[in-house]
Write a structure and sequence with these properties.
Blueprint lengths: L2 H13 L27 H15 L11 E2 L17 E7 L23 E2 L17 E7 L6 H6 L4 H12 L26 H13 L28 H12 L11 H9 L2 H4 L4 E2 L13 E2 L7 E3 L17 E3 L21 H6 L9 H9 L2 H12 L2
The chain binds heme C (2 copies).
Length: about 400
């Protein structure tokens, strides 16, 4: 597929549009109440959740600090119903002969790899990428991932990923790496696990996706007009607003699951999906809200980085992650997804599994194990995953 076709396919998949006689479509669950708080919040946590909820849904205006360049004007445009998409981020990177290793010279994207097509006065243009087909340029897409269930990811005990990485290294089938940040903390958020907390992610998203600066991310992103500010002078958001959005994300409940089949779970292990999509990790004793403390976070991820091979590579080296690496995608809430994988290229679960296969992918053995299962077992496994 050409990059442009890929972009389009990802965008269509993310919106749940498109059609044709492709594989069985994803289960779409629209009646469950997302956007609800978890049980047992304190009055303060509930109040923060409500304030953050409103900010997450707000369409920001230029006079509130939107821009000078931006990708979308609201968190919810890329995380509709706290789920995936329909908005997405386009990226472009100069790569070497293998098609994914970043080239030393990134001057084709002088303002960084992220495309920011929209702008507000006084800016006169957005940040665009050179045309498709420019030699040595890799264009890629990231669909906004689901943001529900992320409180559990934040609550996971700091030592869990390292424990699992050690076990993986002993078993020798996959070799996850702990996403350590430069300051020693565990990277948990972002498709390449480059950020430690939900509050920091919110600040990063406000700035990078919307051009809204805050105390944690005080400088506007680089732009072709060389503007260091927008229509709202100085820092656009106060820290309390960013903390409220963090509190909202942290306290988002996941609707209860029903009808989980133990046979599906056993097959999930037999096909070695659980090597990376570890069903549950321990949470910290002091995690907040209280319901997240000292419990099992059923996120279906080891929170480790894995080499997923050349086929899924997007060329981005971020923090501890290399150009072919991705954090094991948490499968929590998968039943709400309209498309899968970082760019939404998979339109069915079966496609998503087969696309784990690639030159050098750590998941090749797991795809082999999946394909070796009798058809009825494959179906039971996919049914199990499709209900998570
Ligand atoms: C233009 C689309 C877009 C907008 C607008 C956007 N996001 Fe995102 N969001 C993404 C993408 C793409 C990713 C994956 C980014 C990465 O890997 O770094 C992401 C990742 C996240 C994550 C991490 C999820 C995980 O599994 O690690 C959180 C939390 C999040 N966004 C919250 C927000 C908040 C809060 C806002 C508003 C301030 C926001 N996003 C605005 C597209 C968007
Ligand atoms: C080597 C580790 C590894 C193994 C083994 C593995 N996965 Fe994954 N899985 C990942 C990573 C990493 C991603 C994210 C890749 C991307 O976004 O491009 C992912 C993504 C997914 C997704 C898409 C989720 C989303 O958010 O879009 C599904 C579904 C999935 N895996 C199911 C499975 C199943 C079922 C199996 C077993 C047959 C399996 N995986 C085996 C690492 C693994």
């Amino acid at each position: 597929m050409t990059p442009r076709a890929l972009t389009l396919a990802a965008a269509l998949a993310a919106t749940g549009c498109g059609g044709g006689d492709g594989p069985v479509p994803l289960r779409l669950v629209l009646d469950d109440p997302t956007d609800a708080p978890m049980r047992g919040l304190s009055a303060d946590e509930q109040a923060g959740f409500d304030r953050g909820d409103a900010l997450f849904a707000r369409q920001y205006l230029p006079t509130q600090g939107l821009g000078p360049v931006f990708v979308r004007a609201s968190c919810a445009s890329c995380h509709a119903g706290d789920g995936r998409g329909p908005g997405f981020v386009e990226r472009a990177i100069a790569v070497g002969a293998d098609g994914y290793t970043p080239a030393p010279d990134q001057s084709v994207m002088p303002f960084g790899p992220v495309v920011r097509p929209y702008f507000v006065a006084p800016a006169t243009r957005g940040v665009e990428a050179p045309a498709e087909g420019t030699p040595g340029l890799l264009r890629s897409v990231r669909v906004g991932p689901a943001v529900f269930g992320r409180g559990w990811i934040e609550a996971v005990d700091e030592s869990e990923p390292a424990r699992i990485a050690a076990a993986q290294s002993l078993a020798g089938r996959v070799r996850g790496r702990v996403p350590r940040l430069a300051d020693g903390r565990l990277g948990r958020f972002g498709l390449k696990a480059r950020i430690a907390t939900l509050e920091e992610f919110a600040a990063d998203a406000f700035r990078g996706d919307m051009g809204l600066t805050s105390p944690l991310a005080p400088t506007e992103v680089a732009n072709a007009d060389g503007l260091a500010d927008d229509q709202r002078p100085g820092i656009d958001l106060d820290q309390a607003s960013v903390s409220d959005v963090g509190a909202y994300l942290r306290a988002l409940a996941l609707p209860r699951r029903e009808g989980i089949d133990p046979r599906g779970r056993a097959l999930f292990e037999r096909a070695r999906c659980s090597d990376c999509h570890v069903p549950a990790l321990r949470t910290r004793a002091d995690a907040r809200p209280a319901v997240l403390a000292s419990t099992e976070a059923e996120i279906y991820s080891d929170l480790l980085l894995h080499d997923m091979g050349a086929g899924l590579a997007d060329g981005a080296a971020e923090g501890a992650a290399g150009p072919r690496d991705w954090r094991t995608a948490p499968l929590i809430g998968l039943r709400f997804f309209r498309s899968m994988l970082h760019d939404g290229r998979a339109r069915s679960l079966e496609e998503a599994v087969r696309m784990h296969r690639g030159d050098g992918s750590e998941a090749n053995g797991s795809v082999d194990a999946f394909e070796a299962l009798p058809a009825a077992d494959r179906a039971a496994l996919l049914d199990y995953v499709g209900r998570l």
